[in-house]
Amino acid sequence: MPPQESRPIRALPLLLPLLLAACEGEPPAQLRVAGGDPARGKQVVRDFGCGGCHVIPGVIGAVSWAGPPLTEWARRGYLAGHLPNSPDNLVAWLRDPQAISPESAMPNLGLTEAQARDAASYLFTLGAGRLPAVPAGMQMAPGQAGPQEEPRIRPRA
Question: Which domains does the chain have, with CATH numbers?
Fold first, then answer.
């Protein structure tokens, strides 16, 4: 019997969007964007070419590494390196990145308030299905981005 030649997995491009979609979910209340619609936001991200600079799960062709990947967005603690990752901060960032970080390479895309809210709403679905539950009694400060993961190293008892 002749040896089988290796062939690339042709189904991978078809399965990849399904695998990445499994990381999406409904964000917890503190990460929901008022007035934002994730479905419209995905279209905004597509229409404004965000995938030209970022890897964005669920957006076909969004595979560039010029900017940071936007995977697992809901699990991030900060945006632009110094702002808590909250809905209001992300909307402000999407509307005018240079107002927050003047040296940023992120261009001002001219998004309207509604477009920025929709885009932020979509981004907060990314990784939302993997957020840890907020422990009972955990206090949340106004504008806090969400639950904090437990420390990886625990003190010995």
Answer: 24-128 (2.60.40.420)
Looking at residue 131, its pLDDT comes to 72
Confidence at residue 82, expressed as pLDDT on a 0 to 100 scale? 83
Burial class (CB in 10 A: 0-12, 13-18, 19+), 24: buried
Task: Give dist(CA 121, CA 10) in Å, integer.
Answer: 32
Q: Which residue has the tokens 């981005």?
A: 145
Q: What are φ and ψ of residue 19, in 5° steps? A: -65, -40
What span, in angstroms and rounded, lies between the C-alpha atoms of 128 and 148?
A: 13
The secondary structure element, H or E, covering residue 84 is: strand 83-84
Least Cα distance to 68 among 126, 13, 29 occurs for: 126
Specify the pTM: 0.70
- State the burial class of residue 110 (Cβ atoms within 10 Å of its Cβ: 0-12, 13-18, 19+): exposed
